[in-house]
Amino acid sequence: MQSHDTSPSTDIPHDASQRPGRNEAEAALVEHYPRLVRLAHLILPPALGRHRRVLAAHALVQKSLSAAAPSRPAAAAGPTVPAQRGESGPVLAWLRHGVVSAALRAAGRPRWSLGRTPFPTVLGLRLFPGAGGDDELVLESTLATVTPEVRAAFALRVLEGLTAQSSALLLAAAGVSAPEEALRVAERIRSTVGRDAESLLHGAEFDPCTVQARPTDLLRRRHRTRLTALAAAVLLAASTTAVLALRPEPSARPAASLPATALAAASARAADPGLLLRTPADRWADTARVDLTQWPARGAATGDTALLTRALNAWARVTGDRTGDRTGVRLTVAPDTPASPPAAPARLLFAGPVDGSAVVLLHDGERIIRYAEALSGPGEPTVELARADDADVTTGAAVAVSRSPLGVRFLLAPWIDESTVRDLLRPDVPAQRLAVSEVGVTDPVPQAPNDCGRVPALQVRSSTRIVEDHSFLLADLGELSPTHLTWTPAPGTGAPARQPREATSAAGLAAWARSACALQELRGTGVRAVNRWEFAQQTLPERAGRATWTCTRAESWDGRGRVAVAWEGPDARSRPVRVPGPVPEDTAACSRFGQHLLAGTYWTAPSGARYYLAAGSRAVTAITARGPVAATVRGPALAVRTNTTGSVRLTGTVPGSGELRGWGEEETDSGGS
Q1: d(CA 506, CA 317)
Q2: Which of 24, 138, 160, 210 is the most exposed place for a label (fewest CB within 10 A)?
Q3: C-beta separation of 639 from 623 below 8 A
Q4: Alpha carbon of 11 to those of 94, 160, 524: distances in Å?
Q5: DSSP state of 514
Q6: What are 457-475's pLDDT values in tens digits?
Q7: What is the DSSP letter of 580?
Q8: Secondary structure (3-state) at 369
């Protein structure tokens, strides 16, 4: 990345005697306002939501002016920060330092910091930047997984064009304890994105000054208006009572009870079925945000106030009781899902009878909540919670609404036009059409047996009203949201890095036919998506065919990733042989930020001869083996005949990235072909 920082430094005013004058600071802020707001917006956490993030970025930049001095003082010596792109203006550098510092503080403690930073007032509208292309969306998703310090480092290096030294100086001045580490991670992101990084950051997805406007939930606004009037009346009555109570006698209850009153009021609102959010039926077809927030309320019981009240009360009781008494309600919580009671009105997705139970599905912005009670006979009501934050067109395409011996019924997203069921183990067998009711509930989808005799999966297609020719695979792993399956094919000769793609092509289905049985190991672990990456292919000795090296990465809803590396022989019917190695709970391996991989294994040829095989991803230019097997080869594949056993230490050469350690270091034998 080219750096534009031609002047080494300029003064950072820290006290009133060094700060720029109010008029001078205001002139610089007006001139550079869009870039400063873009900088703050990039650092702020995406978890704020698109509307609040836009307003917060504007608020932080506008508030930075308040630190300027009433008049322009004489210059004084002090610590230094870089000027921008060769400009000598210390006022802009001072403003940038203030914006970065404020955004980092707000990102670290968003509830506290942003609560003390008044937002610009926008009534009746939701604001959000325009939707970017696929590359912008991928970059936005990537930046959402890193720390605010890394986002700040990335913005300073790419957006502001500062050198690494100048960026580290500014980050340190803004309170970042390890600026070098933040810059290293930011550089990894930059190298992955490539030369387009700067143009992507200047795109619509990252521009909080050019926004789209949509109305807020009109029904919810009516309720809020009524509640505001009611609250005003209550406050007036309370203030009148307080005035009358001002007498020498001691007060019966201190003012500290007010927070408890406010909490009770919030809980009451969350438990009011009349305040449940309901999305208009066709909003999903005319919005830049296609996710669970665009699901309309469906089902025969969406108007059953009694059922909705029982569901909301059960959710509140079973999650709010800290004594261990579950009040007759059975609670199931998916891994890494907060088990907290409702704090605000949730969105109603579904309410109606399914397989002998009355089912209610809710979405609170971060979780899916499923309530079920028996329609007749005895039975304990159940509440199930599962994470669904940042669900998109694929991961928000279906929700399990019922499980029975016949299988799993799903409620499909309104943008799903076609649904079928296929057996992942039999890619050549056509998918069978899956019947769907008028309200979007499917017929039962069979569950995979323990012996892996079949692995059923949903193959669905999105409506052409939002995207052209988009079909994808979803696998049920025992949770509310099915898991999105993708596939990254092997690199071609001289081809650039390939990105994960939908696994519905003939080649993708054939690839998943070999890995499908491994999905059962992920049941109930909170997996959002699984990608099978064929990182290398290798011609076997003795003309035994061609082997494939794979890395299967399972990503959880909280962003963690677990990987398994395997070797697959030329026989498509053979199962993958896992390469021994670490099983970390969280790793960047086999992701956009872990694109280099090297693994090895022992292999017995059909002739009975024994070999040690190793292969690396496309950027590996040489492999060295040490230990029981000692050899060095140029290129991404190694095959050495040997009669030895034991752990082999592998080292790969990746230009520009140094040495790459091997994934597998323990002995394994993949058997004959």
Answers
A1: 49
A2: 210
A3: no
A4: 8, 17, 55
A5: H
A6: 999 999 998 887 799 999 9
A7: P
A8: strand
